[in-house]
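Feature request, filed as a ticket because there's no other form

It would be nice if the structure record came with a short human-readable summary line next to the tokens. Right now we just get the raw output. Example of a typical job, pasted below so the devs can see what we mean:
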Amino acid sequence: MKIYTRTGDEGKTGVIGGRVPKDDIRVEAYGTVDEVNAFVGEAIVRMDAGLHADLIRDLTEIQHELFDAGGDLAQAGKNRQYKVTASMVTRLEAWIDRYERECPALERFILPGGSPLSSALHVCRVLTRRAERLVVTLCREQEANEEVRRYLNRLSDFFFTVARVANVRAGVPDVEYKRGGRVFHTDNEGK
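Raw output as currently delivered:
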């Protein structure tokens, strides 16, 4: 099989159900999900197999799910068979809760940074937010799997949390935004 087909030379690409311009919102959405996936791979190769075995396992699963999400978003035909489900969102929430227990209480906004791995995971977070914005537009303009939108929303929270975990495990503090006061408070304050 040749890697090049020449079928896209005129500025169109194939989706499940037909051909669309390469700058169609559907293509923008699944293309950005693909960018997220590539950066997740970049984050994984920065990880120590012993220290981050749990993260490598979870992020590898997320890579497969991002591929599924891209496939769901590429479906423009009438007989859609979606793979991203609400149970995947619920599982991400459980992972966030588990990883969050490793982190110190959050009191201020934090800036992307700290350790190189944390920075890479913050890139994953912001790209996921961009993908989510594109999926919001896609869902408003065309039919698409809305579970992908919810999944991406939760996934960005996951990346935020594991970016903090990466700093904790590296022994590096989060970089706090210093131009503001404390914005997050514990439930027990003032009692």
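Something like this underneath would help us a lot:
The chain has one domain: 14-176.
The domain at 14-176 is CATH 1.20.1200.10 (Hypothetical Protein Ta1238; Chain: A;).
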